[in-house]
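Quick one:
INPUT:
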């Protein structure tokens, strides 16, 4: 079973609430909310609105659904609810994905040590979405230190997807050509 429904014309971001403030990450500490952000655009009350879903993966906090301005939404669009439920309904699929994410996050400070290291992490994550590697990648260095890495993928129908890693987050989504580092040079 694949988690590709989670990124169908959408993006997920794996991070914590305190990303970028320079503190040492302790992924086993449930007071630090490690979560998956899912950003999508759905019509709510007849209007196109951003819906953001925060799914905690290291705590018992409830799933939180927000609209624009981080305002909590009590009503989740039916299509979105079904998509999340279908993606995570298979226990083995869900546990395998969460295990790989947790393992990645435990060693996150080493993820950009080399292109080989980040490619191994991306290989582990991409298999949960049934994505195939392309030859397209972007490696951004500053002072000979890898800072940002993007790999492009395709699915069986030829649709294009990407995974981007920086020192704060992992971003996985369908390539719409607008987000930074979705397009690359071979």
């Amino acid at each position: 079973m694949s988690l590709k429904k989670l990124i169908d014309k959408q993006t997920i971001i794996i991070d914590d609430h305190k990303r970028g403030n320079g503190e040492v990450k302790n992924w086993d500490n449930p007071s630090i909310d490690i979560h998956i952000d899912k950003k999508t655009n759905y019509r709510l009350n007849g209007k196109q609105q951003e819906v953001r879903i925060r799914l905690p993966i290291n705590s018992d906090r409830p799933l939180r659904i927000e609209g624009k301005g981080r305002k909590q939404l009590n009503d989740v669009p039916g299509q979105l609810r079904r998509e999340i439920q279908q993606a995570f309904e298979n226990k083995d699929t869900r546990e395998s994905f969460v295990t790989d994410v947790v393992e990645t996050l435990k060693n996150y400070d080493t993820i950009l040590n080399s292109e080989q290291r980040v490619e191994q992490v991306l290989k582990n994550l991409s298999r949960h979405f049934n994505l195939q590697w392309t030859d397209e990648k972007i490696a951004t260095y500053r002072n000979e230190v890898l800072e940002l890495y993007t790999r492009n993928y395709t699915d069986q129908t030829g649709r294009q997807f990407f995974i981007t890693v920086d020192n704060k987050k992992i971003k996985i989504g369908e390539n719409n050509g607008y987000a930074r580092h979705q397009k690359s040079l071979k």
